[in-house]
UniProtKB/TrEMBL annotation:
Cited InterPro entries: ADH_Fe/GldA, ADH_Fe_C, AdhA-like, BDH-like
Record protein name field: Iron-containing alcohol dehydrogenase
Listed Gene3D superfamilies: 3.40.50.1970, Dehydroquinate synthase-like - alpha domain
Domain Alcohol dehydrogenase iron-type/glycerol dehydrogenase GldA: 20-190
Occurrences of domain Fe-containing alcohol dehydrogenase-like C-terminal (ranges): 201-398
Keyword DNA repair annotated: no
UniProt keywords, alphabetically: Oxidoreductase
Single GO MF annotation: methylglyoxal reductase (NADPH) (acetol producing) activity
Record-level GO cellular component terms: cytosol
Length: 399
């Protein structure tokens, strides 16, 4: 396999809309990034993180040292939770504005990075709130510069234009997509991810798998998104078992991180549909549900619905985990069962019922899928008509 010839200690510079530094030790590039920010006239920044991972991984020490060396003053907001809320974003934005921050540095997984992107918008639109953003009361065209230091291998948010933040009182979990929130720089260092617990390792990786299954099968898919999808699933099939067995396996972490990165680029190009549109109501109602776990629970039921329409593509991209598919419509039940078995072997065997959902919740979930701002847009990209009946069938199959 060609992966064995890759020097994972070589810091690669990958140029998408974002300049990404990938490799073991890439966190050292924060020194150069801080110097570049300083040259642009930035002398104050807000750092947006979760409660502790930025410290436990050692990333925070590196960032502090780099900012001090570049004479960039900083203030820290470290209250972002999984499934971040508009109130957290507003609190961080208030802190950043009062400090006079000119840039936003995110340290964490998808939640801190998405919150940071939202803060970056509010630094430019000082009369707006996070609810204004996520209820689509205006269209941002500018944001403060963003630097994303990634601590998980799943979301791809460090290289894309998306962010997701919840509105708790409405149980909404909308997604935004604006060119102004592509990070300027991102750091993908697998050495920062060896402390990820096994369950989080599984959930974030399955998030990446869902990104590419959806991106490859939307009504606006393209060959680039499909090619990245096949490669992502191949890498996950090979390296997720290794990372589960040995969390310190840097080669496994490197290729899961690379898979996540290209999955982010895949759905930045091909977009998303059912699985994300239907998971957001789940973790909107139950914020304690890990996003990737919810996606994993839904994935077989989604593929069962779309396989007749996109069998040829799915047979190709799923070949590393379900070999021998031809793409024929009658394979749909087989793929449904095989995906459930593969997910179980990876560590996701739960059903929605195990997460506290009942048949009585389905009508509410269907309503949220169609009424939450932005989710209808995703449903409209599905390869089969996203009727309430189809959405209800997916939830029922996953129950």
């Amino acid at each position: 396999m060609w992966e064995k010839s890759v020097d994972i200690n070589l810091i690669s510079e990958i140029r998408a809309k974002t300049t990404v530094y990938l490799g073991v030790g890439a966190i050292g590039k924060i020194t150069d990034i801080a110097q570049e920010l300083s040259k642009k006239g930035i002398n104050k920044a807000v750092v947006v993180t979760g409660k502790s991972s930025h410290i436990k991984t050692g990333a925070w020490d590196k960032v502090k040292h780099a900012l001090d060396a570049a004479n960039i003053a900083y203030t820290l907001y470290s209250k972002v939770t999984p499934n971040p809320t508009v109130d957290q974003v507003d609190e961080a934005a208030h802190l950043a504005r009062a400090f006079g921050a000119q840039a936003v540095i995110a340290i964490g997984g998808g939640s801190p990075i998405d919150a940071a992107k939202s803060v970056a918008i509010l630094l430019e639109y000082t009369d707006k709130t996070a609810r204004d953003i996520y209820e689509f009361k205006f269209t941002p065209v500018k944001a403060a510069p963003i630097v994303a230091i990634n601590l998980t291998h799943g979301t791809g948010t460090e290289v894309d234009r998306f962010a997701v933040v919840s509105i708790p009182e409405k149980e909404y979990k909308p997604a935004i997509a604006y060119d102004c929130i592509y990070p300027l720089y991102a750091i993908d260092d697998p050495a920062l991810m060896t402390m990820l617990p096994v369950d989080q390792t599984i959930y974030v990786t399955i998030d990446a798998v869902n990104h590419v299954v959806e991106a490859a099968t939307t009504t606006v898919n393209n060959p680039f998104a499909i090619s990245l999808a096949r490669e992502t699933i191949k890498l996950v099939a090979e390296y997720l078992p290794r990372a589960k067995q040995d969390p310190q396996d840097l080669q496994a972490r490197y290729f899961l991180l690379y898979a996540s990165l290209i999955a982010g680029i895949s759905f930045d190009n091909g977009l998303l549909h059912f699985t994300h549109a239907l998971e957001h109501p789940l973790s909107g109602v139950r914020p304690e549900l890990a996003h990737g776990k919810g996606l994993g629970i839904l994935l077989p039921a989604v593929v069962k619905q779309i396989y007749p329409a996109k069998g040829a593509i799915l047979a190709d991209i799923l070949a590393p985990i379900i070999p021998g598919l031809t793409g024929a419509e009658n394979e749909s039940p087989k793929v449904y069962t095989a995906l459930k078995n593969w997910l179980k072997s990876m560590g996701i065997s739960a059903r929605l019922a195990d997460e506290g959902f009942t048949a009585g919740d389905i009508d509410k979930l269907v309503k949220l899928a169609f009424e939450t701002p932005s989710l209808k847009t995703l449903l409209d990209l599905a390869p089969v008509p996203a009727t309430p009946e189809v959405v209800r069938n997916i939830y029922s199959d996953a129950l």
